[in-house]
Recover the amino acids of this structure.
């Protein structure tokens, strides 16, 4: 009965590859987010979707493309991976005022 | 723009010591304020929140009061346990659907 789930938990890949991270929430929320946590544990918003519509798109390289097939899913596709993309990526969802629920994170390592 | 500033860590305490982690914010409006906790190897969990001035959030022995006059939301606990060792993040947001703005996190290490 996991509320926000992400797959995979760990992802190790070579520079230049394309990879996807999947996120699903079973809380009935209508807004989902992707955050990036760097090696110093700093968290920054990347994208936000409300009812499958993109509402936040921070300064993120075009190589990152979110996709929301329905309200319960928000996937993150990354093209041409670079060393600097190595981080932990967190998915989150919300319904009430600002209370966001986070997934367990996906640790991406680019070699 | 809006921002959150937390005290630098790490904070190292002995079990049963009193904990304070300072958090101040800069905001153009009236945000909701949060403390999230991240245990080693895990995602973020909401610890407590306050949505308006003078509100006190509390959970698991932790407390924080929304102080508009000092733009602060300091986290306190009267007696920490080893199991409280984690990274604590102060954050703000305005409404559902907007991003959380996080502080840089404070690592707490409690020894027995």
């Amino acid at each position: 009965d996991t509320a926000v789930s992400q797959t995979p938990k760990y992802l190790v890949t070579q520079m230049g590859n394309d990879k996807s991270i999947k996120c699903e929430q079973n809380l009935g929320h209508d807004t989902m987010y992707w955050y990036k946590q760097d090696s110093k544990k700093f968290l920054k918003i990347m994208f936000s979707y409300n009812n499958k519509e993109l509402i936040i798109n921070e300064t993120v390289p075009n190589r990152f493309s979110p996709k929301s097939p329905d309200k319960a899913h928000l996937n993150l596709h990354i093209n041409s991976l670079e060393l600097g993309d190595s981080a932990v990526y967190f998915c989150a969802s919300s319904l009430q005022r600002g209370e966001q629920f986070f997934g367990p994170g996906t640790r991406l390592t680019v070699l | 723009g809006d921002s959150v500033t937390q005290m630098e860590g790490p904070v190292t305490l002995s079990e049963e010591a009193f904990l304070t982690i300072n958090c101040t914010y800069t905001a153009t409006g009236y945000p909701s304020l949060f403390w999230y906790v991240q245990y080693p190897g895990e995602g973020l969990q909401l610890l407590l929140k306050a949505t308006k001035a003078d509100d006190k959030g509390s959970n698991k022995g932790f407390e924080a009061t929304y102080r508009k006059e000092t733009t602060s939301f300091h986290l306190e606990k009267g007696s920490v346990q080893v199991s409280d060792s984690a990274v604590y993040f102060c954050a703000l947001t305005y409404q559902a659907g907007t991003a959380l703005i996080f502080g840089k996190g404070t690592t707490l290490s409690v020894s027995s």
